[in-house]
Specification:
GO molecular function: ATP binding; RNA-3'-phosphate cyclase activity
Oligomer: single chain
Subcellular location: Cytoplasm
Strand order of the largest sheet: 1-2-4-3
Shape: globular
GO cellular component, one term: cytoplasm
Active site: 327
Number of helices: 10
Order of helices and strands: EHEHEEEHEHEEEEHEEEHHHEHEEH
Number of strands: 16
Family: Belongs to the RNA 3'-terminal cyclase family. Type 1 subfamily.
């Protein structure tokens, strides 16, 4: 590679470490060398979805890359553009690898775009170990749009495990992020239910049964908090898909009347259909996670906590998270290796993560 690369070790991390490291390399405009890629997984190295992320980011940034092959445990990545030109791109992951995780790696790059970008990806839209499509569309994007991210996501087909075959398009416009402040949670709580079934499951009313299971569990909730919960939206959708599957997403926000862009706290809870598991139980699993959240004080869910960190690195701000999970800890350490100053402090039964508003790339520009 043309210049000395920042050395990063993924021995105790998974795919999120790789994705965030590549995104930060583009934002910081500096080369990285990542060893022991996905080192704590039973099958380390690049799998199809990780290779798709690497190749997509390399194309967007005109990067010089080595190690871009299945199974590779060492990757070198040197971005070649200071600004991203935008344009139309298409990616076929080739398996049920996660479309939303690919989109997650691209989202922060909106802050470096010179013109709009459209990315159409084919793969798994609702698969294990990744955010279901409705979480990405209904929870993450509305939350980030409040702080200036110009992004929308459309889909034409859903992809469940094992066949994948789903297709979705992420559209980004050049964006400037405001500092992210997510500290308080309001007393008024709106519940939104998004339940989806493949067409092959429609005769079993899977989407309806998932929603009913979730709502019954939420209604049966017994707690001492003074939150005022209200169901404001219920969506049950039958979707085209190459194979049977289902998913449910519960969105919990602090304002049932203000629409997507007005909530100051916003969280999501998900579950995927499994062979042999009643649809009602799938809904209950998502509701159990929502009920645990409602008993706490954080304005975002435990998975969003990890996903917000790279945006904190860009814009600065403070986020109260339910807990410092292993993913949060690993992501914080990675950001610190890029000289992003992070503060973590316990507060009011949760943890506040704060970052000074110094965007990546500053050091490279001085």
């Amino acid at each position: 590679m043309a210049s000395v690369a920042r050395e990063l070790d993924g021995a105790i991390a998974g795919g999120q470490f790789l994705r965030t490291a590549l995104t930060l390399a583009i934002l910081e405009r500096e080369p990285v060398r990542i060893t022991n890629v996905r080192g704590d997984r039973s099958t380390p190295g690049l799998r199809h979805q990780h290779l798709a992320v690497l190749e997509t980011l390399a194309e967007l940034a005109a990067a010089d890359v080595s190690g871009a092959e299945l199974g590779s445990e060492t990757v070198e990545f040197n971005p070649g553009r200071e600004r991203l030109a935008g344009g139309d791109y298409a990616v076929d992951i080739g398996t049920a690898g996660s479309v939303t995780l690919l989109f997650d790696a691209v989202l922060p790059l909106a802050t470096e775009l010179e013109s709009p970008l459209s990315l159409t990806a084919t793969g798994g839209t609702d698969v294990a170990w990744s955010p279901p499509l409705d979480y990405f569309r209904r929870v993450k994007l509305p939350l980030l749009r409040q702080f200036g991210l110009a992004a929308v996501c459309e889909w034409s087909r859903r992809g469940f495990y094992p066949d994948g075959g789903g297709q979705a398009t992420l559209r980004l416009a050049p964006s400037t992020l405001e500092p992210i402040e997510l500290i308080d949670r309001a007393r008024s709580t709106a519940i939104r239910v998004y339940s989806a079934e493949a067409a092959a499951l429609a005769d079993r009313n899977v989407a309806r049964r998932q929603a009913e299971g979730a709502l019954e569990r939420l209604d049966a909730r017994d707690c001492d908090c003074d939150c005022d919960c209200e169901l404001v939206e219920r969506s049950e959708t039958t979707v085209a898909s190459d194979c049977p599957g289902s998913a449910i997403v519960l969105r919990v926000d602090d304002d049932g009347r203000g629409g997507d862009e007005s909530a100051t706290s916003l969280a999501g809870f998900t579950a995927l259909g499994e062979r042999g598991v009643p649809a009602e139980r799938v809904g209950e699993n998502a509701a159990d996670a929502a009920n645990r959240f409602l008993d706490g004080t954080a304005p975002v869910d435990r998975h969003m906590a990890d996903q917000l960190l790279v945006f904190l690195a860009i814009a600065g701000g403070r986020v109260r998270v339910p807990a410092v999970t292993d993913h949060v800890e690993t992501s914080c350490a990675l950001l610190e290796s890029f000289d992003v100053p992070i503060e973590k402090r316990p507060e009011n039964g949760a943890v506040v993560i704060a970052v000074d508003p110094v965007a990546p790339g500053t050091a490279a520009d001085t």
